[in-house]
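call fold(seq) -> tokens
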Amino acid sequence: MSILCLFSLCLKENFLAAPKDNEAIAPFFFSIFSPSEWYAIPSSPEWYKFNKQELYVSCVSFSINDFKQGDLALNIKGENSYEKYKVDLSLSNQKVKSIAATGNIDFSTTRPQIDLGVFLEGFQLEAFSPLGQDVLSKLRGKASGSFTLKGALGNPSMDGLLFLENAGLKFPYLDVDYDIEGVNTIRLKEQSFYLNNITLKDTKHKSRGILKGTITHNNFKLWSLNLSIDTDNLLVLNTKETDESLYYGTGFLKGNARIYGLTDRLFIDVVGSTQPNT
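ret:
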């Protein structure tokens, strides 16, 4: 998504070469990517071709956050103007397309509009762990499915389904790592991801709980959670004492825990009781 923004703006500003850090597009580029997520790409004829109203980009061994994703190919073609473009993007790993996206971007309105159909097949999620910052880490697994992106370029509405396989994640504050059992369906609607009855299994003691709720974004920058966990016995705390510890120890929960709010100001409400080995 952010890559499309970058190259589309290259066309919008009529760049004849890939933008460098000190060119006009750089502030917009920085506003999309945090320093841990992006790497400057040199202006080199080896990886792109520009011809009138068409831009073709080819990047071998494309990486996100140091995780190799495969070979990227992007073609953006103007529709008889410098305001409307057709987009065709693919990311292939071992000759299998893990991402394919086709559609249109329209700069003729005050707020640029996007209309894309996106297809995923076995897309690796590890590269997006840094997005969780201190709240979520060790994001893993594969995502397949299809969805659309429509609306404002910076904050489009989503509509579709994703299927997660061999997935998992860790909560650093609690030092608890969970596997997500089975193949699970994630509903994408507007700016939210809907999770429904996902079974969590902690990787240390194999205790289980059921996760459901929503993860919502605004411009893919401001993220909020509204999640709940129901369990008869689930590891929810596994930390050691340090000088800075506000809490520490091993905790097993029977009951319900609700996690909600902005990711940098989360609230946790717990109704339940501790279990043996706490």
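The first strand starts at residue 48 and ends at 51.
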